[in-house]
Hints:
Layout: H1 3-32, H2 40-62, H3 67-93, H4 97-113, H5 137-142, H6 163-166
Amino acid sequence: MTVARIAHRAVFFDAMQGVTTALVSFLFVCVVFPHLVKNRPQYYAAFFVVCLIIVLDALATMLEKSAGFVVFAYVTCAVAQVVALLLLFLSAGGITWRQLAGDMAKAIEVIRRGEEEKEVIIPIGEQAPRHQAKPSAADLDNYQPGRITINPPSPEPHAKEDSSSSQ
Length: 167
């Protein structure tokens, strides 16, 4: 193997070592501060993925003469790093994949339109609205709660005792 080939492989994987270092560092921070982890199964899945990244990097170093495997290991490590990053983000945020996907879909829609809020479509005809609009900040500033007075119930008149039955 030539020196240029070995140097190329070193540059190839060394570019990704910083991401793996950051992932491992965050895993250790979560061990020291366990209150940061709000969803443990996602944290443990991220731990497994980071271990997989380390093993693939070691295998790529061992089998560096096989250029095909080195490329496969590089691409697999890159995908695994993205998955581990997402899993750690989800575990620290306490959200699920579905919630993240929903939030991202809303964000993409807002960015695509170039507005800050989602467009409200007024139903036509007898269609019922799907949800009620949230009050604006101006409405909340001007809101004054009304006072409701509840009068205590009036006592019921007691039945007069029959004087003839007591004698």
